[in-house]
Specification:
The protein is α/β, with parallel strands linked by helices and 384 residues long. It is 27% helix and 24% strand. An 8-stranded mixed beta sheet has the order 6-7-5-13-14-15-12-16. Strands 1, 2, 9, 10, 11, 17 and 18 form a 7-stranded mixed beta sheet that branches. It has a 3-stranded antiparallel beta sheet with strand order 3-8-4. A hairpin with a 4-residue loop joins strand 13 and strand 14. It is globular. The relative contact order is 0.19. It binds flavin-adenine dinucleotide. Flavin-adenine dinucleotide binds next to helix 1, strand 2, strand 3, strand 12 and strand 16.
Length: 384
């Protein structure tokens, strides 16, 4: 009987985290298999929407600002090398009030990290962005070099390039390991054993389902609805360069201009109900449709009667704080968790891939905030 192939690393999950982990491992010359239940950045994955924001501002949280900087450079390098640009430099505009300490902290961090930004007062905002109804907003911070990643296509491109670099990609559902000690191989629903030295579970909202005893109460999968609003015919006010990507924490809202003619994208950054990523309904709820219509009418009077042209229902895979979970399984020495993107993880894919790779190959110094030990069973969101 032929001996079955043994890999250095099996990566489970081809969302943005798993794709970049596999890519970095392959670049370091490792034999890698990437096993995915449905497909790269599929419609039920957190990485599966058209677009995701990449911004540098994280309030006082310099760790993530620096990771965003690193990741944006890596995304651009990747797009350049593969000849397909999936980054749109729309600019990212933070809207708020002078009294908001987070706005002040954001500017301080951007300054410390040497990042370009423009501070705007209300009259500059009004002149430059007459599409917005500013109401109580009296300041803005524009990150001119930030923008949007065309998310699902970008993940597919990373997987494609990883395969070109030697990664074996398989569609199968992996059965998680149990017990203690060292795992030799894992079973899938389609084939025989997948044998490897190390196993990385980059399974987003599924982590809680796969490891219920450890992560069932530590990964909070919450329903998040997203809306695309059809812009009026022949109206360029809601597309770049007229409208940047925007975040408005006071309103718990964010949005993106009309990219690739999908419409103005808008959503509320508020945790929804807990859901199962395999079975939750992907249809917009009537309550959220109503709320979004009211919100769009209030902030964008020019879109008061505009139709909703597309919707998405996705899930965040929150940890208690919003910090990533990148750590070893507490009882299985060669099994790793890589997840907890918590509604802000997409942009960081390249840095996550690099970090996990150096953890596995170089036993690099760990970031304590990513440890399992810091993940609690009640949500106290601290990272935005
Ligand atoms: C509405 C919304 C808006 C967001 N906006 C932003 C944003 O603007 N900017 C930003 O940076 N981030 C944003 N995020 C967060 C970001 O999208 C996620 O943090 C990131 O995509 C998570 O990627 P992942 O690879 O961990 O998970 P996923 O993309 O969910 O991938 C996990 C994969 O694991 C696979 N899997 C699970 N179980 C198994 C198994 N047993 N066998 C094989 N495969 C398995 C799944 O099929 C899935 O493909 C947003 C998220 C949502 C939902």
């Amino acid at each position: 009987m032929a001996e079955s192939k043994r890999y250095d690393v099996a990566v489970i999950g081809a969302g943005v985290f798993g794709a970049w982990i596999a890519w970095h491992l392959a670049r370091r010359g490792r034999r890698v298999v990437l096993v995915e239940a449905y497909g790269p950045a599929h419609s039920r994955a957190s990485s599966g929407d058209e677009s995701r924001i990449i911004r540098m501002g994280y309030g006082a949280d310099e760790l993530y600002t620096r990771w965003s900087m690193r990741s944006l450079a890596k995304w651009k390098e990747f797009f350049e090398a593969t000849g397909q640009s999936m980054f749109r430099e729309t600019g990212v505009l933070w809207l708020g009030r002078e009294s908001d300490s987070r706005m002040q902290h954001t500017m301080e961090t951007l300054r410390r990290c040497g990042l370009a930004f423009e501070e705007m007062n209300r009259s500059t905002l009004q002149n430059r962005y007459p599409q917005f109804c500013l109401d109580d907003v009296n300041m803005g911070i524009l990150e001119p070099q930030s923008g949007v990643l065309m998310a699902r296509r970008a993940v597919a491109a990373v997987v494609e390039d990883a395969v070109r670099r030697g990664v074996e990609y398989r569609v199968a559902q992996v059965t998680p390991p149990r017990g203690t000690g060292r795992v030799k191989s894992l079973r899938t629903n389609t084939s025989d054993e997948t044998a490897a030295e190390q196993f990385v579970f980059a399974c987003g909202a599924w982590l809680g389902k796969l490891f219920p005893e450890i992560l069932g109460e530590r990964i909070f999968a919450t329903r998040q609805e997203v809306f695309y609003i059809g812009v009026p015919a022949g109206d360029a006010r809601f597309a770049p360069p007229a409208l940047p990507t925007f975040l408005f924490q006071e309103d718990e809202s964010y949005g993106m201009p009309d990219l690739e003619s999908r419409g103005l994208k808008i959503a509320l950054d508020r945790h929804g109900e807990r859901v199962d990523p395999d079975t939750q309904s992907r249809l917009a709820s009537p309550q959220m449709v109503e709320e979004i219509r009211r919100y769009v009418a209030r902030r964008f009077p020019g879109l008061r009667d505009a139709p909703i042209v597309e919707t998405r229902a996705c899930q965040y895979e929150n940890t208690s704080s919003g910090d990533f979970l990148i750590d070893r399984h507490p009882e299985l020495e060669n099994v790793w968790f890589a997840g907890g993107g918590s509604g802000h993880g997409f942009k960081h894919g390249p840095a996550v891939g690099e970090y996990v790779t150096s953890e596995i190959l170089d036993a690099a110094k760990r970031e304590p905030r990513f440890s399992l030990a810091t993940k609690k069973t009640t949500q106290l969101r601290a990272v935005y």
